[in-house]
Write a structure and sequence with these properties.
Elements: E1 2-8, H1 14-24, E2 38-45, E3 50-57, E4 62-68
Parallel strand pairs: 1-2
Antiparallel strand pairs: 2-3, 3-4
């Protein structure tokens, strides 16, 4: 799976990238062909707390998740 990580109003560190890639790599076993999948990750710095949005478009549907601390 190709993972595209972008930060809005925050610098994404290498540790953050490694953590995101480690967590998303667990989805590979559920995908038919993980080499053709692109996951888009946006890390945002809101006023109250940080937020991470993950969007994975697949052929039949779109997986989307959002986590706010």
């Amino acid at each position: 799976m190709e993972i595209i990580i972008r930060g809005e109003k925050i610098t994404v560190t290498q540790a953050m990238k490694d953590y995101i890639e480690e967590k998303l790599s667990k989805l590979d076993k559920y995908l038919d062909d993980p080499s053709n999948v692109k996951a888009k990750v946006i890390v945002k710095a809101d006023k109250d707390s940080p937020r991470v949005e993950v969007t994975i478009p697949l052929r039949a549907y779109i997986l989307r998740s959002e986590e706010k601390k």
